[in-house]
Task: structure prediction
Amino acid sequence: MRVLALVLLLLVTGCSPQRGVEAWMVLDDLAAGDETSRLKRSTPPPQRSEITMSGQAGTRPAHLYQPGEAPLGAIVVVPGVAPQGRYDPRLVSFAETLARARFLVLVPELENLRELQVEAADAVPIADAAQHLAEVWRAQGGSQVGLFALSYAVGPSIIAVQEHGAADAVGLLLSVGGYYDLTAVITYFTTGWFQDGAEWRQGQPNEYGKWVFVLSNAPRLQDRRDANLLADMARMKLQDLRYDVSFLTRELGPEGSAVMALMDNTDPAAVPRLIAALPAPVRAEIEALDLARRDLSGLDLPAILIHGRDDSIIPFTESRALAQVLGEDPYLVDNLDHVDPTPPGMGDAVVMWRAVLRLLNDRDNRL
Result:
């Protein structure tokens, strides 16, 4: 009720009362998850169907969420780096909320992300999904579609728009916990240090990001024994971060040791040198995914970039840097913890309400 009272106060300042209340209802439903909410009580349930889409990356399955009322917008939801992919309960709940907000929602199957693999090539099926949904949406009288990406999926999503023909299809990027400079991200999840303007600050990174990096890059090693050892180590740690894998570390050859030298490093100044010492295929993939190495100045992509200052995997400064390049202001909140939000306090609720309101306005005016 405190959030509702605050929103009602903000409505007096000039935004559409109807749209402002709808934004609060969407935000409330996101926080409710599977529990009841005002939005659930006042809208018919969306229908999810299994479809097949095709494009540059071939044929793949996807989920299409159809609102119970006539859609007013359309959005592709890119799954995060998670084993359940489009079946992840958090993602399903999020897609259903968007559908209740009268978005036509497409969630493609991305095998790499389900296998905890991140690569620039994922941009191709993301572009296919955007183009597919745009065709469906235009057949219903719509225009462009939105593109929602979590975490490391933000990079391939932007590459999809910039390089793989999705620019005409996509009219908005919505992201949570995204990145811009991969060297800065690697510095954070290995050493805990990140740069906030001119000041270096130290946080408490979650080792999950470190071991996803190891698992994702293990197949790129030419030494297959090292590749298998790194993959085994990463799977053990991702199952239990307390697991001691030092007995495997001692068995690594030069390639695997170069990866672990970066992972075990605690000196932020040493990170560029240690990245330069990685096997060439690993360095090439980092460079391909690194948005800071790309010229984004000509990219016409309105963006809603949300990030928590308490993010333990990617520091909030990354969304701020990306927002600056895209000519946007980021939506920074104190408590979001990457992609698992806690109930918002008053200040965070205001910021999140503004972000949802922007999304609904773009739904009505752009998508």
Notes: The chain is about 45% helix and 15% strand. The domain at 2-181+290-365 is CATH 3.40.50.1820 (Rossmann fold).
